[in-house]
């Protein structure tokens, strides 16, 4: 694919991808992850309640800390959300933030 694209660019071929394909790609990615992990989801919830609750608590504390620091630095909500989503590198969160 890269070689073909490089050859096309060298020949002056330009292709514009519609902006609407970004959210569509994200939706397909999220759907594929859900389909793959869905059958095991409820089993994991039943067997690992304590670690999941601890992880949720850490996440909430981190989100509150990020919000507090962001407000103290005078950041708006979108910038705080984008910074937090970038810190956890979660593609759906990044898409929702920006």
UniProtKB/TrEMBL annotation:
The lineage of its organism: unclassified sequences, metagenomes, organismal metagenomes. Pfam families: Asp-Al_Ex. The chain crosses the membrane at residues 17-35, 47-69. It comes from human gut metagenome. Residues 2-97 form the YidE/YbjL duplication domain. InterPro entries: YidE_YbjL. This is YidE/YbjL family protein. Keywords: Membrane, Transmembrane, Transmembrane helix.
